[in-house]
Amino acid sequence: MSVTIEAERVDQLLRIIVAAATGDYELRVPLVEEDDDEFLEVELGVNYLLEELSLNKARSDSQREQLAARADELAEQQTELMQALSTPVIAVWPGVLALPLVGRVDDERAAMVTATLLERVAAERATHVILDLTGVGAIAGNTMPALLRMVRAIGLLGATCLLTGISPAVARQIVALGADDSGAPVRALAQLSDALAHVLAQKGALRR
Amino acid sequence: MPFRYEERVSPKGRPYVRLHVSGELSLADAHEYAGHFRAGGRYHGMHTLSFVEKGTEYGPEARKIFLEVGQSAPHATVTSSALVRAAINLMSRFSPKTGRYRMFATEPEALAWLDDKEA
């Protein structure tokens, strides 16, 4: 079989194949009824191939978008879960909230703890908040002021904040910051149970 | 509608489907066609004479369905379009050669071939 093809048709076809090789599947070989020869089938075949590639690319893009959306959704759920786990505020007695902090506390976490705790204090009209630092290994250098500001904010809401489980390192940080001078009086007790007993005794005294 | 179906009888008394095809054939159109010609369909096993108009286009998803359907009986296509012919030739390359399908330029030669073909 021998077919004579105009150079222009071959050039056009090659241009489109090269474009497709660089990822552009949107071009098509222009087809005309007058080119009634075997090469027309080749040109149409290239167009069919491009349509298929274009269709598959669209499907793949759509799947990628769905995966990205799912990943965002999961990341959001994970953040929510982390927030919930990192600020486990427990109502240990009517009007008494306890927050056992575990792990490292940085600025971001301190801000999250503050927001959650203040919200709960206001919502439950808490009179006392016990912030247990037994599980806190370290507090980032500039985070302690944020925690002390939280203690002060709790005071402004009419509740008393008690710190328990303070490690020697954390104690040194508090002293270095001169907490009492900064207007955030820190009432500290050795253990969470001590603080609870103290609060309950205080509440009992109020009832009398 | 891209498809128009008519049931007719050939000069030799054989019932056949006369199918008129035009426009852009989508996936839904291909499914409609497949429903008629697959096993259990109204025209399954019937001789078919189709007229495919100039400008008829087979969408990428539709092409796959047409390839799957195959020919359950002799099918002659009449078209004057070089592009339609090229499209059908291309699709035919993926189908097994059964001798049940042919393209023609005119209706009389297509009908004569169809009339001579046993199912």
Automatic annotation (TrEMBL), chain A:
InterPro entries the record matches: Bact_StressResp_Reg, STAS_dom, STAS_dom_sf
Coiled-coil portions: 50-84
Domain STAS: from-to ranges: 86-199
Signal peptide: none
Keywords for this protein: Coiled coil, Phosphoprotein
Keyword Coiled coil among record annotations: yes
PANTHER family in the record: RSBT ANTAGONIST PROTEIN RSBS-RELATED, RSBT CO-ANTAGONIST PROTEIN RSBRC
Protein name (database record): STAS domain-containing protein
UniProtKB/TrEMBL annotation, chain B:
UniProt xrefs under InterPro entries: STAS_dom_sf
SUPFAM superfamilies in alphabetical order: SpoIIaa-like
Protein's UniProt name: STAS/SEC14 domain-containing protein
Natural source organism: Nannocystis pusilla
Lineage of source species: Bacteria, Pseudomonadati, Myxococcota, Polyangia, Nannocystales
